[in-house]
Design goal:
Elements lengths: L3 H18 L5 H18 L4 H22 L14 E4 L9 E5 L2 E7 L11 E8 L2 E6 H5 L1
Parallel strand pairs: 3-5
Antiparallel strand pairs: 1-2, 1-4, 2-3, 4-5
């Protein structure tokens, strides 16, 4: 049976390679680094396999938490920030949903002001999105 040091070295190398081919937000890489550290420690301090596994789990958890603090993943930006003009297809009654044409598609929309009614064929600004519903404001109201 191969020594536990060789097993930890193989596991650590394999996990680091997995991160190279299948990005997992540094989770596999940190687990691989932990396995390599346990391989080193198994030669010096850690003799029992159960203790090696516990140290590997603790090191993996700590390194994953630390990597989250220092490495921030890029956040996706919503497309709504770039194209904010739409046009009503049907009337949007006060406090009720209607339909707007936004980026060439028909979207469910609601007016941001619950007391306003927006007539059809009027330009509106998209202020935000809630699920699949766009929240809009009439263009003439914002320009006045």
């Amino acid at each position: 049976m191969p020594s536990t040091t060789i097993i930890w070295l193989l596991a650590g190398s394999g996990l680091c390679l997995i991160e190279l081919f299948l990005p997992t937000a540094f989770v596999a890489f940190m687990m691989g680094i932990s396995a390599l550290l346990v391989a080193f420690l198994s030669q010096t301090i850690l003799g029992k396999l159960w203790l090696q596994v516990v140290v590997w789990l603790l090191l993996s958890t700590a390194l994953i938490i630390l990597s989250r603090r220092f490495v921030s993943l890029p956040r996706r930006k919503a497309k709504i920030q770039h194209a904010i003009i739409a046009e009503t297809l049907i009337e949007i009654p006060a406090g009720k949903p209607g339909r707007v044409l936004y980026e060439g598609n028909s979207w469910r929309a609601r007016c941001d002001d619950e007391t306003l009614t927006i007539p059809p064929n009027q330009r509106v600004y998209v202020t935000r999105r809630e699920g699949t519903t766009l929240i809009v404001m009439p263009e003439n109201l914002l320009h006045s």
